[in-house]
From TrEMBL:
<dbReference type="GO" id="GO:0005739">
    <property type="term" value="C:mitochondrion"/>
</dbReference>
<dbReference type="Pfam" id="PF02798">
    <property type="entry name" value="GST_N"/>
</dbReference>
<dbReference type="GO" id="GO:0006572">
    <property type="term" value="P:L-tyrosine catabolic process"/>
</dbReference>
<dbReference type="GO" id="GO:0016034">
    <property type="term" value="F:maleylacetoacetate isomerase activity"/>
</dbReference>
<dbReference type="InterPro" id="IPR036249">
    <property type="entry name" value="Thioredoxin-like_sf"/>
</dbReference>
<dbReference type="InterPro" id="IPR005955">
    <property type="entry name" value="GST_Zeta"/>
</dbReference>
<comment type="similarity">
    <text>Belongs to the GST superfamily. Zeta family.</text>
</comment>
<dbReference type="GO" id="GO:0006749">
    <property type="term" value="P:glutathione metabolic process"/>
</dbReference>
<dbReference type="InterPro" id="IPR010987">
    <property type="entry name" value="Glutathione-S-Trfase_C-like"/>
</dbReference>
<dbReference type="InterPro" id="IPR004046">
    <property type="entry name" value="GST_C"/>
</dbReference>
<dbReference type="InterPro" id="IPR040079">
    <property type="entry name" value="Glutathione_S-Trfase"/>
</dbReference>
<keyword id="KW-0413">Isomerase</keyword>
<feature type="domain" description="GST C-terminal">
    <location>
        <begin position="48"/>
        <end position="167"/>
    </location>
</feature>
<dbReference type="InterPro" id="IPR004045">
    <property type="entry name" value="Glutathione_S-Trfase_N"/>
</dbReference>
<dbReference type="InterPro" id="IPR034330">
    <property type="entry name" value="GST_Zeta_C"/>
</dbReference>
<dbReference type="Pfam" id="PF14497">
    <property type="entry name" value="GST_C_3"/>
</dbReference>
<keyword id="KW-0828">Tyrosine catabolism</keyword>
Length: 171
């Protein structure tokens, strides 16, 4: 992501970036929303407006409130304290998320259908595992993540299975 070639794709040099339908999109929620609007099957946002708001709230909580705090650009600035910083950011966010999910979850983040929130949860749990966060205090997050990882789409798209995943993080 730090190559000149990738910088031409995404000047922020962040992942993800997706070239699709003649455009390049960056930022997870922009990509997910575009896919929802152009490929609505399977649906990633519930029909019910209250559940749809809950899905968006959870997705925003993860992609705005947890994930950016342990991006590579931030961690580089933390120096020797990067592991502690990442763990604290994830644990703080997961404490709140665990409480939210106790009110919204069924099999998945909101009810029993996979949603945009679930697409955000799995990579964040992978980051938590990468930074050796104890998942014991987060049984709802752990249960949902386990259920999602039983689905083929989540198995093959898991961060540890991507072609550019560093060897030490590969599944």
């Amino acid at each position: 992501q730090f190559s000149a070639e990738f910088k031409a794709v995404n000047p922020m040099q962040q992942v993800p970036a997706l070239k699709i339908d003649g455009i390049t999109l960056s930022q997870s929620l922009a990509i997910i929303n575009y896919l929802e609007e152009t490929h609505p099957n399977p649906r990633l946002l519930p029909q019910d407006p209250k559940k749809r708001a809950q899905v968006r709230m959870i997705a925003d909580h993860i992609v705005s409130g947890i994930q950016p705090l342990q991006n590579l650009s931030v961690l580089k600035q933390m120096g020797e304290k990067k592991m502690e910083w990442a763990q604290n950011c994830i644990m703080s966010g997961f404490q709140a998320l665990e409480q939210i999910l106790q009110h919204t979850a069924g099999r998945y983040c909101v009810g029993d259908e996979v949603s945009m929130a679930d697409l955000c949860l799995v990579p964040q749990v992978a980051n938590a595992e990468r930074f050796k966060v104890d998942m014991g205090p987060y049984p709802t997050i752990t249960r949902i993540n386990k259920a999602l990882l039983e689905l083929e789409a989540f198995k093959i798209s898991h961060p540890s299975r991507q072609p550019d995943t560093p060897a030490e993080l590969r599944a």
